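Quarterly update from the structural biology core.
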Amino acid sequence: MDWNLPEEFVTQDGVVRWARLGAGRPVVLLHGTPFSSFVWRAVAADLAADHEVYVWDMLGYGRSEMKAGQDVSLRAQGNIFADLLAEWGLARPHVVAHDFGGAVALRAHLLHGAEYAALALFDPVALAPWGSPFFRLVQEHSAVFEQLPGNLHEALVREYVSSASSPGLAPEVLDELVSSWTGEAGQPAFYRQIAQADQRYTDEIQHRYGDLAIPVTVCWGEDDEWIPPIRGEQLAAAIPRSALHLVPGAGHLVQLDAPGPVLDLVRRFLVA
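Predicted structure, tokenized:
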């Protein structure tokens, strides 16, 4: 379960941790919420054999800095991603994004001029309306949930993260995904990112999906209960020359549920 992000990028709201693996054509992997770059661990390791792979934890997530008063919204993350690409000196990398990472990549491209060779979206947050009943409940009462006793909070997060997988997560993987959201910094950070998850940040760009001129691949876990595959059909229909690829036996955490098929899709995307 060792996963290291040794590099730092300083933003106005805190430090973002990132890593570069391998050498070759650049590819950047973006995670979603409430996860971290750890979800791409197996895919990143394989791609690093012949690609230069960049991974990062969004501000307020995983190993990046968590502190009170941070702006961890999609607006902020899109700005940070555009700045990171400039910091890395990447002019037109291939970008692979999951969940909220999809919205971050789309915002960086459509609003901040970030250029990609191509974009692959896995179960992205991209179309309104979004947010499960649980997500909306926590969002409306985040200050109350933040005060839960630590053991009850951990149990809630553990159950929530578990529900993103169709076949179920290995215990050690679940422990890793939950651990960053516990403790003095992690618990309030979990509710902070939910409280700031505002649909207006995808509303601002949804009408522009038809303007996307780069190759876009849309992939979806066939058993995704967080964002159903019908959303994938709608998104693919909204993006010119895009098609939907379903991953059998996978839920929302498609890269953990079906790493082999996901890696095959990513490698096909990288040579297309």
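The beta strands are 7-11, 14-21, 25-30, 51-56, 94-98, 118-122, 216-221, 244-247.
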